[in-house]
Specification:
Blueprint: H1 4-12, E1 17-19, H2 22-28, E2 42-45, H3 49-62, E3 66-69, E4 86-89, E5 96-100, E6 105-108, H4 114-123, H5 140-146, H6 153-156, E7 163-170, E8 175-178, H7 191-195, E9 203-211, E10 219-226, H8 232-242, E11 245-252, H9 253-261, E12 274-281, H10 285-300, E13 306-309, H11 313-324, H12 326-330, E14 336-341, H13 347-361, E15 366-372, E16 377-383, H14 390-410, H15 435-448
Parallel strand pairs: 2-4, 3-4
Antiparallel strand pairs: 1-2, 5-6, 6-9, 7-8, 7-9, 10-12, 10-13, 11-12, 11-15, 14-16, 15-16
Helix pairs in contact: 1-3, 8-10, 13-14
Family: Belongs to the FAD-binding oxidoreductase/transferase type 4 family.
Cofactor: FAD
Pfam families: FAD-oxidase_C, FAD_binding_4
């Protein structure tokens, strides 16, 4: 360990684990974007809050930037360390610390995987309802840092709604204990919510108290084939009016093509241009009849061409795989991703405008759409052709993103629905936030991170 700063770090924090092997630097220095060459100084793996605080104080002393790291499943470059930063990985801090049956809360360390949280809540007969496909590898700390949403936002909301309290180490090494699990707390600014979605730029989440809820009622899953893009919102309205929706997810024929090539089972004999997978409460004959009534209404109006309803948990999982397997099936193509949102009421006009924009802008690219239509969130994946240079591909896509950002501004939407801003989208932040808001964000960062060492360059330039 030739760098004298690292020698000082181990003297300051003797029990700290530090990795400097090239393979580790590459592995921990990037997220799923793969657009930047990782070049961290080293990887620090603390095992306690006290060690996190000591690392931050060392960083302040030596003017070393810190990139907090969880599961690194992000898609916006928020966990990239490409400029000699110290990656502070929280993967060793991955335990359940406490369950409170009266408050119905689960206190966990930030490196615990979302799936492990689900299992821990289930062991108590309760549910932590935030869920998405990366549940096995993403961490709670990362979920909080981006206010992650997922497939059940339509019923349960984003991560923000389920954080009862948290402990955060600021950019000076100070430990903040925020909200402490209170249900009601009107004693000034709620700094807990300020930390959520801050992408590690204000501090490092070192503990979180999560709200739990009752398990959902029995549910069923239906896959719908749609004849055209224009009927999507009519189908959503028909199902939302009659059913208690858990999820309502949309994807295109191109998305299905890639998931099937990745090993999923083909749902229909014919290929249709658009699909919806929806999950809804279905615990009795009344709810089952309502589901069939919604389906028949859509068929009678020509909004749905075909459909299948799950008859078992295994079949429900097969249907969900068609939606949840999309991101993994596209990974080898190095897709350029947009993750945008508008109000649900603005969705029809925005979808129509966006479909036209993408059709004109990407005539020769494979564009894969999918999204959480029930909460106004759309994911756009542009796949890189094999013969096209990476930089040229990104350059072409950036030109279209500028147009997309302008459209979002007209529709009062967001350039980032649930993946954060990171490095990828910070040039488009002004399409979502005013100049005054961004300057206030900078001021807040200067208070909590006066040396500017917490994940610098992410979200905005200081």
């Amino acid at each position: 360990m030739s760098d004298p700063r690292l020698t000082d770090l181990l003297q300051a924090v003797p029990a700290l684990r530090v990795k400097t092997d090239p393979a580790d630097l590459e592995h921990y220095g990037r997220d799923w974007t793969r657009r930047w060459t990782p070049a961290p100084l080293a990887i620090a793996l603390p095992g306690s809050i006290e060690e996190v605080q000591a690392v931050v104080r060392w960083a302040c002393q030596h003017r070393v930037a810190i990139v907090p790291s969880g599961g690194r499943t992000g898609l916006s470059g928020g966990a990239v360390a490409a400029n000699g930063e110290l990656v502070l990985s929280l993967e060793r801090m991955n335990r359940v610390l406490d369950f409170n049956a009266v408050d119905r809360t689960l206190t966990v360390q930030p490196g615990i995987a979302l799936e492990a949280v689900h299992n821990a809540a289930g062991e108590q007969g309760l549910e932590y309802p935030v869920d998405f496909a990366a549940r096995g590898s993403c961490s709670i700390g990362g979920n909080i840092a981006t206010n992650a949403g997922g497939i059940r936002v339509i019923r349960y909301g984003n991560t923000r709604e389920w954080i009862a309290g948290m402990k955060v180490v600021t950019g000076t090494g100070e430990l903040l204990d925020l909200n402490r699990g209170l249900v009601k707390n009107s004693s000034g600014y709620d700094l807990r919510h300020l930390m959520i979605a801050s992408e590690g730029t204000l501090g490092i989440v070192v503990e979180a108290t999560l709200r739990l809820t009752d398990p959902p009622p029995p549910s069923n899953v239906m896959l719908l084939a749609l004849p055209s893009f224009e009927v999507l919102m009519q189908v959503f309205s028909a199902f939302r009016e009659r059913l208690q929706l858990e999820a309502f997810e949309f994807f295109t024929d191109r998305a299905l093509h890639h998931v099937l090539a990745h090993g999923a089972q083909k749902p229909f004999e014919e290929t249709h241009p658009y699909y919806v997978v929806t999950e809804f409460a279905s615990g009795d004959e009344v709810q089952e009849a309502a589901a069939m009534a919604a389906f028949e209404t859509c068929m009678d109006n020509g909004w749905v061409s075909d459909g299948v309803i799950s008859q078992s948990d295994a079949q429900a999982a097969q249907l969900w795989r068609l939606r949840e397997g999309i991101t993994e099936s596209l990974a080898r193509y190095k897709p350029y991703k947009n993750d945008v949102s508008v109000r649900i009421s603005a969705m029809p006009a925005f979808l129509e405008e966006t479909q036209k924009l993408l059709g004109e802008a990407y005539p020769h690219f494979d564009v894969v759409w999918f999204g959480h239509i029930g909460d106004g969130n759309l994911h756009i994946n542009v796949l890189k052709p094999d013969g096209l240079d990476d930089a040229e591909f990104v350059s072409q896509c950036e030109q279209v993103t500028k147009l997309l950002a302008e459209s979002l501004k007209r529709h009062e939407g967001s350039i980032s629905a649930e993946h954060g801003i990171g490095l990828v989208k910070k040039g488009y932040l002004e399409s979502t936030r005013s100049v005054a808001e961004i300057e206030m964000m900078r001021g807040i960062k200067r208070v909590l991170d006066p040396e500017g060492l917490m994940n610098p360059g992410k979200l905005f330039d200081a």
